[in-house]
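Form 7-S
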Amino acid sequence: MWPAVVAWIGALVLVAVSMRPKQQDQTPVAKDVKIPTNEEGTEIPVVFGTRDIDSPMNGWYGHLRTVPIRKKGGKK
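Output:
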């Protein structure tokens, strides 16, 4: 009797794990980055202290590029 119960529970767990939806691999891409930009005629907010600005203005953000990750061997 107990082996049948254990086999039934094992089969139930196996089916539950196999029916689970697969995780999608979402790797970030450089073009997915949203950076605030300047437009002619837009007011530039002046902030004193620590505040949150809804739409900050940015003149330059830096070099957006992808850099490959290189791992060196395990030499000692």
